[in-house]
Amino acid sequence: MNWSDEKIISFLEMYRERSLLWGPTDAQYKNKNKRHDGLMEIAVSFGIEKVEVEKKIKNLQRQFCRKSKKENDLPLNSNIDSSRDNVSHGEYTELLFFMTKFNRLLTL
């Protein structure tokens, strides 16, 4: 599947709406059947398999973590243009909800 910016944003919005897929405080987070159903809803909406949804989620999380780490590692007075990267926080502000998950991993 070709993932245009619009499709990625739509995908992230659907994922964010289903907090049982990513939010450990959600009452249904540990319910494997409900999580499966949530992933299947996204898969059906995009005409892809459930495994592809899981892969896309992981890829977007990794992409966000790499980008965040790269930006945090830059010196404050750096003149490096971060707009050359494929995904910027400006383009995919929907990715910012991954930040709480990422910050928890960094503090462990």
TrEMBL record:
SMART domains: MADF. Coiled coil: none annotated. This is MADF domain-containing protein. InterPro entries: MADF-dom (IPR006578). Residues 10-104 form the MADF domain.
